[in-house]
Design a protein that fits this description.
alpha/beta; six-stranded parallel beta sheet; four-stranded parallel beta sheet; 13 strands; 44% helix; globular
Length: 423
């Protein structure tokens, strides 16, 4: 795989997706190599981590990288594509439109190529003009021309490829792990914040995230609550400085810089509201994470956000500062409304089966022979495994007690696990 900045890292959603995907593939017995960029962490050298050769069974290789705006992704993707072309790999998985420019290289050497489109990157403010814009547009076209399969994260992007290129793509939305809520400890000491005393934005400080709207709206809100803006820049230092200048007269607005680890978990766990006022997204992992912590979310009405939250969040018209202000003010004035939404989200996740212990599922899937038996039962009766057992008790010796308990848990997924097993 290449296209990510590096793993392990939380520099962006792409890095999180790549890590989660790779670790699961390794667990299934595949040999996975990730080509990381060289250079420093996108938020500054103080966040650099030790360069590894292996991580959780994933082979890591660092490629030469020109550390200049617009050239880091181009140079690292070129060298990664070159290595993939000559490497002993069956499949090359490229992440993002820019790196997909080089999809032709491994394809020319007989590799199967998959491209995941994490968003229409040419729409981002920093790539709307110049060489970067042309390069990303061509990367998109090369993905259409050379990739064996294209994965998209939202229905909107799927429609875009169908309408623009007549290209059929595979829709696979992002997902997150079920977290454990954390008590306010480290961040409370560092930022003097209590549970439910702050609104949270977490993400890269870039124009398309709509942070300027959020700051301008919040400055007019009458509340004692604070606004925590957590995240670093991404070749956007001037924009970050402008945001800080905009908020300098309001001591309720706190910029934490890039956060990760325990403080990140605590911020998610204890927020009053999580807000994502974006103009542009792929499928926002931070929003998925915020909802997995049971947060009430306030988002712009772009499809990439509304597809995630459905009717379980507060929504405002994209770029409309006045409507955003009104939503925040109402949320601060009516805590009972926020608690009701949080309870709704909790129930929503329970219905979707997020509460199910993954160990039950992994216990079955680790044994391929056992799994194939279960799948055959699904195919034979076209009902879930528990119903099959109840109807045909003579087959009970086909499963251990552990498996019976496991399938009882799996039944909460309302047949979705069937498709997971089949695939």
């Amino acid at each position: 795989m290449f296209g990510q900045k590096r793993i392990p890292s939380r520099e962006g959603g792409v890095e999180i997706v790549v890590e989660e995907l790779c670790t699961r593939m390794v667990a299934q017995g595949h040999n996975v190599t990730c080509y990381n960029r060289g250079g420093h962490h996108v938020s500054g050298s103080e966040y650099d981590s030790k360069r590894l050769k292996e991580y959780k069974g994933i082979k890591l290789k660092t490629v030469p990288t020109i550390e200049k705006k617009g050239l880091a992704a181009v140079s690292s993707s070129f060298f990664a594509a070159l290595c993939c072309a000559f490497g002993q790999y069956d499949i090359v998985h490229i992440h993002a439109e820019g790196p997909a420019f080089f999809a032709w290289l491994p394809k020319m050497f007989g590799k199967k190529v998959i491209v995941t489109i994490h968003g229409l990157d040419w729409q981002r403010e920093k790539w709307k003009s110049g060489f970067g814009s042309k390069f990303i547009h061509q990367g998109e076209k090369n993905a259409v021309r050379y990739a064996d399969e294209i994965i998209v994260l939202s229905k909107g992007v799927q429609d875009y490829f169908k309408n623009s290129y007549g290209k059929k793509t595979v829709f696979i939305p992002n997902g997150v792990n079920r977290p454990k809520k954390q008590k306010a400890e480290q961040y409370q000491q560092k930022y003097d914040l209590e549970k439910d005393s702050y609104l949270l934005f977490l993400g890269r400080l870039v124009p398309e995230k709509g942070i300027r709207y959020l700051v301008e709206a919040f400055k007019n809100v009458k509340t004692d609550k604070k606004l925590v803006i957590a995240g670093g820049s991404s070749d956007t230092d001037s924009y970050m400085n402008a945001l800080k200048e905009l908020a300098k007269d309001d001591d309720r607005i706190i910029y934490t810089g890039f956060v990760q680890g325990q403080i990140l978990k605590e911020l998610y766990s204890n927020a009053y509201i999580y807000t994502l006022p974006s103009d542009l997204e792929g499928m926002p992992l931070s929003l998925l994470e915020a909802m997995s912590y049971g947060n009430c979310c306030l988002v712009s009405n772009i499809p990439e956000c509304t597809e995630v939250v459905e009717d379980n969040a507060l929504v405002f018209k994209k770029s409309d500062i006045n409507e955003l202000f009104a939503k925040i003010q109402k949320a601060c004035d009516h805590p009972e409304m926020i608690m009701e939404i949080k309870e709704k989200i909790k129930n929503y996740y329970a219905e979707m089966g997020v509460e199910v212990d993954n160990n039950y599922i992994e216990g079955i899937l680790k044994d391929s022979e056992r799994t194939s038996k279960i799948i055959r039962l699904y195919k034979q009766e076209e009902v879930n495994a528990m119903n099959y057992i109840l109807e045909k008790p003579q087959n009970n010796n086909y499963f251990t007690q552990f498996e019976l308990e496991a399938m009882s848990k799996i039944n909460l997924f309302n047949r979705k696990v069937v498709e997971i097993c089949k695939s």
